[in-house]
Amino acid sequence: MNAFSSLDHEFDIDGDTLHEECGVFGILGHPDAATLTALGLHALQHRGQEAAGIVSFDGQRFHSERRMGLVGDHYTDPVTLAKLPGNIAIGHVRYSTTGEVALRNVQPLFAELEVGGIAIAHNGNFTNGLTLRRQLIAGGAICQSTSDTEVVLHLIARSRYTSTADRFIDAIRQMEGGYSMLAITRTKLIAARDPTGIRPLVMGELDGKPIFASETCALDIIGAKFVRDVENGEVIICEIQPDGSISIDARKAGNQKPERLCLFEYVYFARPDSMVGGRSVYVARKNMGINLAKEAPVEADVIVPVPDGGTPAALGYAQASGIPFEYGIIRNHYVGRTFIEPTQQIRAFGVKLKHSANRAVIEGKRVVLVDDSIVRGTTSLKIVQMIRDAGAREVHIRVASPMIFYPDFYGIDTPDAHKLLANQYSTLEAMGKYIGADSLEFLSINGLYRAVGGKDRDAANPQFTDHYFTGEYPTRLLDKESEKTGNKISLLASNG
Amino acid sequence: MNAFSSLDHEFDIDGDTLHEECGVFGILGHPDAATLTALGLHALQHRGQEAAGIVSFDGQRFHSERRMGLVGDHYTDPVTLAKLPGNIAIGHVRYSTTGEVALRNVQPLFAELEVGGIAIAHNGNFTNGLTLRRQLIAGGAICQSTSDTEVVLHLIARSRYTSTADRFIDAIRQMEGGYSMLAITRTKLIAARDPTGIRPLVMGELDGKPIFASETCALDIIGAKFVRDVENGEVIICEIQPDGSISIDARKAGNQKPERLCLFEYVYFARPDSMVGGRSVYVARKNMGINLAKEAPVEADVIVPVPDGGTPAALGYAQASGIPFEYGIIRNHYVGRTFIEPTQQIRAFGVKLKHSANRAVIEGKRVVLVDDSIVRGTTSLKIVQMIRDAGAREVHIRVASPMIFYPDFYGIDTPDAHKLLANQYSTLEAMGKYIGADSLEFLSINGLYRAVGGKDRDAANPQFTDHYFTGEYPTRLLDKESEKTGNKISLLASNG
Amino acid sequence: MNAFSSLDHEFDIDGDTLHEECGVFGILGHPDAATLTALGLHALQHRGQEAAGIVSFDGQRFHSERRMGLVGDHYTDPVTLAKLPGNIAIGHVRYSTTGEVALRNVQPLFAELEVGGIAIAHNGNFTNGLTLRRQLIAGGAICQSTSDTEVVLHLIARSRYTSTADRFIDAIRQMEGGYSMLAITRTKLIAARDPTGIRPLVMGELDGKPIFASETCALDIIGAKFVRDVENGEVIICEIQPDGSISIDARKAGNQKPERLCLFEYVYFARPDSMVGGRSVYVARKNMGINLAKEAPVEADVIVPVPDGGTPAALGYAQASGIPFEYGIIRNHYVGRTFIEPTQQIRAFGVKLKHSANRAVIEGKRVVLVDDSIVRGTTSLKIVQMIRDAGAREVHIRVASPMIFYPDFYGIDTPDAHKLLANQYSTLEAMGKYIGADSLEFLSINGLYRAVGGKDRDAANPQFTDHYFTGEYPTRLLDKESEKTGNKISLLASNG
Amino acid sequence: MNAFSSLDHEFDIDGDTLHEECGVFGILGHPDAATLTALGLHALQHRGQEAAGIVSFDGQRFHSERRMGLVGDHYTDPVTLAKLPGNIAIGHVRYSTTGEVALRNVQPLFAELEVGGIAIAHNGNFTNGLTLRRQLIAGGAICQSTSDTEVVLHLIARSRYTSTADRFIDAIRQMEGGYSMLAITRTKLIAARDPTGIRPLVMGELDGKPIFASETCALDIIGAKFVRDVENGEVIICEIQPDGSISIDARKAGNQKPERLCLFEYVYFARPDSMVGGRSVYVARKNMGINLAKEAPVEADVIVPVPDGGTPAALGYAQASGIPFEYGIIRNHYVGRTFIEPTQQIRAFGVKLKHSANRAVIEGKRVVLVDDSIVRGTTSLKIVQMIRDAGAREVHIRVASPMIFYPDFYGIDTPDAHKLLANQYSTLEAMGKYIGADSLEFLSINGLYRAVGGKDRDAANPQFTDHYFTGEYPTRLLDKESEKTGNKISLLASNG
């Protein structure tokens, strides 16, 4: 999800969007650590709107605040920030799957270890989290949350290494999946990225103090400099030295594979003003539109973005095709978090609660709707109907990414596979008919690869993570396989 | 304010925006009256986010719900809607000036009259409200709110006419200013627009039942047909007849003057997908940008809208100039109503909490920022700085409306005149220097008139209300004049 | 209701208690006016727990805070009190009948009159409020609340007298019923009691500044001196003079009748530590128990009060009878305002949620339960069962007031007459059998009169108001009679 | 604290009361497990008002609800109870020391063990909790809360025994201190009481299903039968068998010492209608008053209880002395949880916010105030002043327990020793003078022993826990001793 579509999550009547599960931010050695973390998390809010947490360390004690709601709902409050003193802090924003809305699962998680306290937060998902959890429990560990972060804490606590850094790396090595992880101890800020580099993580610097964040937009908001991407399989340990200086020790966890960033960061999740893997997300999206215009041209009068996700691609399509770009769909921003469970009558108005057709640019026109992606298609169907009701002569849909066939296991919350539009109909025609469009086209996988990385997909060594389109997963899926054997843990359902 | 800038109100750190005070909606004879009113108000939310109220009549009793907050916060709730039974309803959304945040002032207001109950809601402002209030109090009336709507209720109650409709018209005739007003009685829905037609009001129809709303977007959301604009100085009385049919009686209040719609509805307030005075707001805004490109061209690399208000004009400017349109400023939608009173530290981040520069399209470029209007200029200053920080080579500002010099008295909440940018500096150069722009240009008054109405301003009989630019007020300002004499009423300060 | 039974209202599952509608407090000329009013209202909280309001005047403006909830929930807050500056204040606590829970009806009410602002609050009820309301509406007045206080404001506003005091008296003269009323203007604090003196009102003094309150306990809490009772039919006008001194002008409204205080103030409503009509409420209640012991003796082992209302009478009964007094019923104080709408399952536990039997003093004993009054008898039934379950050998009920047969119209919220126990069964035996008691006796009307006033009831000129027992109303009941003619006003149902 | 003083905690301006930290309730095999647990906790509310939690098991999953606030605030709600399905449940109410108000610490705590899930709740305190925590952390355990319950979970998880019951007993054996503990697994309800039996725990039965609760009043509310006290050092394991029957297995943990119930349960904490250790709390308190009358007689006119704690003792004193018992102090029940942080001005009114003198029974009298205990004496001082202000001729204080000199380590939150009245003055005269009483006397330790158990204290083997009076602790105090060595863990400060 990006800033162009930012309130989608909160009023997703049809369950027709993808959700990213988290964003992280950390800073070491800065007197305003918690305030800067709050600002960084605010910039990362598009990565998770359900809850936000910050842990700081003030030289004596760790301080933790975890709250349901937006960063701006709590962490701009002087009273709350005053409870987070110290010059070391990490924070986390999260989206949570239904039924797990537990404050108990809100990160960062903290534990007292023999070597001292540690707080951890991560973005992404472990593909062997459940497997490890079972082993830990068998070994006498107690698990109080359903969060995989707790598993990491246990691995660190039980590691036979002595230093926190070594224990952290020892733990990380055992975790499989796609994740970016931050940790703080009494003197350190540690950052790690998964061996394949599926989830992004960047390093920045403000006033000479190291910062890590999921995206560069979190650096921009506080005026921090971008230093570099954390590399896949890398662990960076920043530590305040006795003389007040900060040492930075970048290591390899020893489990690297070729980097494969998640393509959906470019298609949908990352903010358009962020640089991900050294590439402008906005430019990548415009390129998707440009390539789409080449691959799937159509004779039409007007290019209309499906707000807000489809906007950059629509602009690219318009510039490449020479067809005028117009705001044919107007967004009602007041459909927000507080839109309470509406009556059935009101739910029936569906997409109109959020979008309205701008008849002045649609009536009598051949309209091309450009969207970033199609998940279930239920929203597309309603938008097409709305555009037709406003008098469009023709409605063509152009989607700036390939068809989605497969579920994700690295932190993206996807619907059941059989609910995906691409799995419900076997031909473009059938899909288009379902949606009610005069034509429907998707960007090719190579079109997407070129838009992002400039080159076609290398089938032998794909440059990006793309399993939702291709079915080729970049890691093994241990938990998923063991699930088939049915040995499920009866976890706690909890709300408080 | 429009849907392109919709959350501005809630996080307007600098007091650098204009606020419209209200939106109204009413429907007669429909079994889902309250639900449809809630939907209509939701579509009009951009006209007022502070509070919303609905009054319905169920054949026996009137029912009233008035709440602080957004429509979606309360009026989509089955429980709340169940408290508003009946097939007659009117509703109101309001923005309120600071210090008057009293539930007591939230409309619609209800009164029991000899002829039966009546509920009233209006958008706009009366220029002789205080004068009439003083006369009423001298005549033994009691005033419990500081709302002018209460004055209208008194005038109706004290009218010597017998029918409600005649009493309503009698009251309306005594009111001066700019307003659109709706009322319901046990059988009627009454709509009225001020003699000059400063504030908009449209008539629609759903399933044969009459509807009135501030803007056409409130008709669109419920799939109602647009019938016509209520005319200036017109009173339309719709009544359920004993046989269930609905009579519609359109009268003139007898005080008409030539119509002069408020230009700011086109520049900023109305939603771009609304038709106001028969004209597409979106097309008018694009025309402003086109005219601006002609009047104030500049050699540049990229046209960047200041979101969200400047977007249509920027698109028009780009199309007219041939310079590429790019999203150089990204909006953070999560700066919302709940952004609590931030620490001073966080306030200092100002505009960055809401906007960020999209460096990829700005760095090294000559940038033209297109905005809809400039009030105090404090926000513009910060945006220019942000764009420069992102590496722009030049920053030019083009404003799609003329300079604002004068206060409004018809429902727009303007800052003190001496705080308006146009009153602080005598030359464009000085203003531009203050803001930090390489150049600054405003659309001419004729350029604006042509964008909206196709013709230059007729100095003898201006086609629109434009006093904020010209100082020429369309009505006399009785309260304002009497204020000079100092006879002020010591009104109640209240919060509950 | 008294402090011995104070949380009854909030968890009255069976609607088996009587509710008093209000308490008032006012002070003039004291720099801590609002704070002292808050404390006085806190002491009067037993007279109304639904809402509380305070209006103050600071020399320039009136300030009003009205809130649902307890005094301690809002009015001890420094922030709230800071919104009520000035040295003149009145306040009000209220209980409201179901369905009228509207902030709009919370007192004090304020109106701007020609002579300046006025705020009014009253305890009690007008028996011609609706009749006057109809006349006012016919005369062009608008009524926005369903509160009779608004009627008083209209009468004051329309009075042909010039001074506020004369207007107030003019208005009061037109009102019939039982009430105590306080008003403030820019310089005055006015107190009035109804012609028959049904509702109590006392005058006190603190630091030389006049105070009025419903009961003396509100004087005690702030260390104020009791000066005297306001007399029935009296209006006392206190005014700050230009030199800062305070004038006190006591007048008769000219409509006095012989004083008849409401007996239920002694039986149940007033706090036991209050002096009402110069008599200790606590002593009166003990006397009721003493007289009851004489009138209705019983051979038993233990006297058990039904908490909290029956406690003083039980103590009197025990002392007069020589039977030991024991706490056989323990109260759970945590059944409070926040006990949310419970499941049916939990409701079934009924009286046990609030009371439990103290088996150690009940088992095997002949128990006398002493209660202050019986309304519907539904609670008594459950308590008897509970006492039997705890092993009592016999259970006798002694009620320290006569049987209730008739509704009240002076501010006590009584159930429908046919739901009163005394109207459901024609004999004591039948009532006792319904309740499950071995015997049931009520105090005689003369026993009650002697307990309170020392003398038997004077049938020709009863010394107290006692219609709920006798059917003899101290005033005519104009609204009630006109109700039969069916000319009902269709008032607004409102929640906000 | 008992039901006679139940709201003291919430408005304890002076920190002049003792606080008990918890109450527990559990039930096995009943279809309404969570509802009955909610009712039981409601009856135990006097043992902890800060937070309440319930965990249930529905055959598949554990369900947990933990909330700040009273039981009646949340757990009577159908919506909340519906989230706690199943026929096994335990619950917990808690009082928490300042600064640890963390939802995270609210019990019951849950953990997934190899043998399946387990939830635990306890009342009391471990005297070696910190010592064990240090050992566990050194062994690779992670501690996420500051609650000792977490330590028990770790000990169970790490036990080398295989069955849950054996693991539970293994863990219990390592814990020292005073506690009553309940646990549930997928089929079991386990109850345990500390070796010395400091904290109470009773076993009951409803519809043939076993129940455990801190006090018998929790059985009474649901109509359950009392079966017996759980013995000190006993572990009772109830298990649902495959055939639906319930097995009950009572074992000794093997660490018993002679039973010594906490005397403060009798003096102050337990509800008067509870049976603790087979003795009526109410009767014990009356006996304390009777013994006090014999030990410390005084010539006086009236015996006045200090509400609510002193009431039963005052009644005993009155009966033994023949001096009349009167309600000389009236309680304002509306000083409750929601009394928000008051202004300094209002705080100054102190004790008057909660209590008022009933002048009618005090004026001109020689008054004996009977209180249950004196902690700091700050409240007593104010009450004496209030009684004098109401005109008492003499004021004598009689305290129904001995002087408190020493802190508690078994779950009672005591002020710092130097703040205790008994440690501030060396003679009764000096204490009495400080408080302003004409005389001050305390019950002797033998007087208290006889009131509760019928016999004098056996110095060699005291029958009860009485260290707060005597300094003789019933267990060793491991954590306290190790504290002196300074090896403190830097625990997390957290609010969410």
Automatic annotation (TrEMBL), chains A, B, C, D:
Pathway: Purine metabolism; IMP biosynthesis via de novo pathway; N(1)-(5-phospho-D-ribosyl)glycinamide from 5-phospho-alpha-D-ribose 1-diphosphate: step 1/2. It comes from the Bacteria. It holds the Pfam family Pribosyltran. Transmembrane segments: none annotated. The active site is at C22 (nucleophile). Its EC number is 2.4.2.14. It catalyses: 5-phospho-beta-D-ribosylamine + L-glutamate + diphosphate = 5-phospho-alpha-D-ribose 1-diphosphate + L-glutamine + H2O. GO terms for biological process: 'de novo' IMP biosynthetic process; purine nucleobase biosynthetic process. Signal peptide: none annotated. InterPro entries: GATase_2_dom (IPR017932), Ntn_hydrolases_N (IPR029055), PRTase-like (IPR029057), PRTase_dom (IPR000836), PurF (IPR005854), PurF_N (IPR035584). Keywords: Glutamine amidotransferase, Glycosyltransferase, Purine biosynthesis, Transferase. One of its GO terms (molecular function) is amidophosphoribosyltransferase activity. Residues 22-241 form the Glutamine amidotransferase type-2 domain. PANTHER family: AMIDOPHOSPHORIBOSYLTRANSFERASE. NCBIfam families: purF. In the C-terminal section; belongs to the purine/pyrimidine phosphoribosyltransferase family. Catalyzes the formation of phosphoribosylamine from phosphoribosylpyrophosphate (PRPP) and glutamine. This is Amidophosphoribosyltransferase.
